[in-house]
Amino acid sequence: MQEKVHHLVFNHPSFDNHEQVVFCHDPDTGLKAIIGIHSTVLGPALGGTRMWPYEDESIALWDVLRLSRGMSFKASLAGLNLGGGKAVIIADSRTDKTPEMMRAFGRYVNSLSGRYITAEDVGIKEADIRYVKEVTDYVTGIPLEMGGSGDPSPVTAYGVFVGIKAAAKHRWGSENLAGRKVLVQGVGNVGITLVEHLTNAGAEVWVQDVYADRVEEAVAKYRAKPFNGHFAEAEVDIYAPCALGATLNDETIPALRCAIVAGAANNQLADENRHAKMIEERGILYCPDFLINAGGLINVYSEIAKYDRQEALRRTENIYNTLLEVISIAEQQHITTHQAAYVKAQERIQNHKKSLVHS
Ligand SMILES: NC(=O)c1ccc[n+]([C@@H]2O[C@H](COP(=O)([O-])OP(=O)(O)OC[C@H]3O[C@@H](n4cnc5c(N)ncnc54)[C@H](O)[C@@H]3O)[C@@H](O)[C@H]2O)c1
């Protein structure tokens, strides 16, 4: 008899009522991808595609389910008429990626007829999105010269920066970051622009990345300092996770020496409720990732909603007020900032669902 396998898809701990999960395979190009559509209640499920050499496909599935669910809450909190979705491609972006693979992926996106709309994420750049655009219109973050809004990561970085200022205002009574010590973990598309904003604001910035060339660029361009120790032990005011998720976990939280965690990475909390509580108990202010990293989504949404860059930046600046509101709800209701953001996001989705039923 076949051994019973747990946690396939429907009973996966991160499944959380996903509407659709699509496994894509194209042997000719080596494409292996998973598209997660968590919710289309507020609109089409929009979320970027991540390319990463996952050790095995169960980790890729875990990642895509958590990411697409997070997109539902991100869109809802940002007030966008979008659902939540995300895709992962199991491959190494530095060695495996080809135009043919990106086109094959685009054909899968196209087959979903607009239920899922893709964009950039880790390992996927604007140049790759061009190939996807050749075969489907269900793609955003397309280059400016092709009529799109371009790479969303500078706007994501701006939103995180605005969020950091709001967190500083709450924590220290002033949003002035001059002299504040910040560790930016991951100096990729988002991280490098965040370093620029922080440096311009007078912060002392440390950087860390698995690729030496990324660190060298941050040092050369912005006089950032390389940080070589374990990130959790960095004696900084602010830890800004801008690499991959789950860096806040049982091992790292007790070691943290910062006062604020605020970064772009999705799913920073390995176990969202338990670890949000652990951080709060340590007296550290956690800025919910899906709230402060919404700038990129707001920017790519401009391609659908037809607003301009200035409007995207204005909407992104609203992250400041939303974060302060969420912190205030958390304090009043004695819940974590993560829970407060989650409840606020769910409220809008549930209200919209009810209005659909009654209309
Ligand atoms: N690009 C966007 O607009 C956007 C929007 C919202 C959220 N995010 C999230 O922000 C994060 C960064 O996105 P990006 O577009 O800058 O990706 P990226 O691939 O350009 O950069 C990620 C960087 O992190 C580095 N990295 C990976 N593991 C690391 C580790 N253990 N320690 C240190 N560095 C490590 C990588 O080498 C890379 O340089 C991701 O979690 C992404 O999901 C991005």
UniProtKB/TrEMBL annotation:
Glutamate/phenylalanine/leucine/valine/L-tryptophan dehydrogenase C-terminal domain: residues covered: 150-357
Pfam families with a match to the protein in the record: ELFV_dehydrog, ELFV_dehydrog_N
GO BP term (any one): amino acid metabolic process
Annotated NAD(+) binding sites: 186-191
SMART domains registered for this protein in UniProt: ELFV_dehydrog (SM00839)
Annotated transmembrane regions: none
Active site: 86
Family recorded in the similarity comment: Belongs to the Glu/Leu/Phe/Val dehydrogenases family.
Protein name per its UniProtKB record: Leucine dehydrogenase
Organism field: Thermaurantimonas aggregans
Gene: vdh
